[in-house]
Structure formats: C-alpha cells, structure tokens
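Hey, I was hoping to borrow your eyes for a little while. A protein chain has come my way and I'm curious about its shape. Take your time with it, there's no hurry, and the full record follows here:
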Amino acid sequence: MINLDDKDKILKLQGGEKVLQSIDALPNQLKQSFSEALNINFPEDYKNVKSVVVCGMGGSRFPVFIIKELFKEKLKIPYVFNDDYNLPGYIDKNTLVILSSYSGTTEEVLICGEKALAKKAKIIGITVGGGLELFLAKNNFPLYKINPVYNPSGQPRIGFGYFVGGHLGLLFNLGFLNLEKRMIEEAINYLSSLISNFQVNIPTNNNLIKQLAQKLYQKYPYYIVSEFLTGVGNAIANQTNETAKSISSFRIIPELDHHLMEGLKFPDKLKEILVFIFFFSNLYSPKIQKRFIITKEIVEKNNILTIWYELKGKNKIEQAFELMAIGSYLSMYLSVLYEQDPTIIPYVDYFKKRLKE
C-alpha cells in the first residue's frame, strides 16, 4: 500500500499540485461563488416564481442535491433537480429553470434549456462558459459565469464548492431561503480551520481521513447518511467513483431500514469487500439517531465491517460543509492508494465521444 505521507509520490501520480490545491481551496471556492452570485442582477419577476427546477448532471448536479436536503426546511418554494433530457410537465412562465453545467457543454442540460425556452420558463445559468453561456447570451437570460481561480484541476467534482456557493448565492439573491446570510459565512470560516486537519502534510497517525482511506482500500464502501446530509452522501459516492475509480454507493436512513438489511446475506463475497460507513450527526432527529445505532447492530450481525464517523460542526451547515471536505480528501487519498490520476476520466470521455458519433 502506498504511503499517504509521501507527498512527492502523490504529486507524481496527480501530475503536479493542481488537485491538492483545488481540494484545499474548497472554502475559497464557496466564499468566492457565494459572494459573486449574491450580486447578479435579476429581473424583478424572477423573484415571484412558484417553483425552481435545476437541470444538471454529475458534479454540477450533486451540489444541488446537497442544497435541497440541507435547506429542506428553509426553502420558501419547491426546489427540485432534473437529471435527464425531459422537463416536468408543470413548468411554465411561473417556473425558474436554473441550467447548471460546469463546462457549459452538458448535453442533457442544453436540451433542457431549449425545452424550458419553449415552455416560456424564466431561465438562468451557472457555468464557466461553453454552449450554455452562448445559449443564455443569445436569449438575454441572466448568467453567473464562474471564474474558477480556486479550481486549477478543472474537474467539476473537485471544484464543486463553486456550485454549492453559487447556487446558494442565487437562492439568497432571489429571496428563496429563510436563513441569515451570516450562517453561511460562519460555516465557511469554520471549514477553513477544519480542513487543516485533513491535508496531505498531516501525517497518517494524526489524519483521520488518511486512516479512513486505508480502511476503505480494496473495499466496497456504503456511505450511510440521513436528513440534512443526504445530498453530501451522494456527493461522496460520486467522487469515489470518478476520483478514485472505485465502486461505491450511498444509502439513506430511514429508507434502507425498510429493505436493505434483508439483502446482506448473499452473495457470500459481500463479507469480504463490503463496508458500511455511518456518518453520524448529533443533529439528526432523535428517531434517526436511534435508527443509526440499531442499523449498525444489524449490519454487524451479518458479519459486515462497519465504521462510525461522528461529525463535529456545531450546526447543520457546518456539518454539511465538513462532510463535503471529508469526501474530497477521502476520494483523493483513495485515488493515491489505487495509483490513479483523479484529473482524468477516460471512460466518461469515451462515452461522450461515442455518443456524438
């Protein structure tokens, strides 16, 4: 197993410092994008819509899932994400459609943009450029164009702080969140101090995320989350797949308690590779906290490895940002253990090439 304290080896695998710089800059990504999106000018009638639909895929989708679940009780109007080629039938002039694509070239998002235009929906976009920027400019729709100075890796899933902060800034700007802005700013400051414990210069014996990566090496991780952390669980599974080139899943309590526990007996190989990582929060509702404990018991009764990780933030936003950082560092350290370059996604690129043929 590769030594995770060997920074020279890590830099060689990753082709330089761009990945580490991008992951370390998560707080800066959040801060920059949140501040900039707050200052976008919108037509006044954009603030009077009845619902919001966000179109996005992959690293431009999971930040929306994070926001949807984290602020579930604070959103003033329905807020959903759309992750295919088709729009909901209810979309009309009273719907705000947000087109979310880091590259600006995502096929599904561009097609949904044309369909939203035909439905006379109100439209805005968030991107670094590409065809999405051209579409918005052609039709005189508002745009938050990201200047990704804190994501030299160029990978959306590694620069996803831009989309979490950017979408949050748009929601605050439009008045759709019942929350004080300072809570976001304080959570970003908390994150800045927290990630110093996860960085590559912290030796493994003092670095909980390096230790966690070692435990997940050659395993099939199931990330277990609930309530306000549900979207972050999805993000970590996505990052593990793309960054570490490793299979992973995320599951949600209480839903998994209604079926998954009966599916742990077979095949026999499960006992060798499966590991459940319970991301526990003292801010979960009491019934959910009890379910976490009992679910862990049942998984262990099936002779499957479990890991219990308790989040430290003092409120839900801090804990969500904390888990976002954990996912970025964890998937990066796993990529090192598997000797993979997180900056390339050959099969995703191959798929897109074949799709265009």
